[in-house]
Amino acid sequence: MTQKTDEATPFARIGGEPAVHALVERFYDLMDLEPRYAALRAAHGSTLADARRKLSWFLCGWLGGPDHYVQRFGHPRLRARHLPFAIGIRERDQWLACMDQAMGETGVDEALRQRLNQSFFQTADWMRNQGG
User: How far apart are CA 76 and CA 25, in angstroms?
Assistant: First the structure.
């Protein structure tokens, strides 16, 4: 698949693949370090290396860049792939807060950050499979 280079894509606005990688690295670093993300971290097992790669690949395509994830694994099937994990309101909210903090700390433009937060909320809420 060819890489999209449209300057209007969130991928281009965020700064391309290096910026997506930096965002994902900060996201998982925060998850590992911040006690307020403990429930979210507990759902990820002992190592975060695989999750880091997969989220980085996924976000590149989701933001309008290269579809690394789809090329490797096919359609993301996000909900189906996350069904084995208990995802309730607490996990959703921790994921969203962690990603928002990571976006802030990696310098994502405020307007784009707000837009992404809305999209992330819709997706994260749809992923819930627990009531609380």
Answer: 20
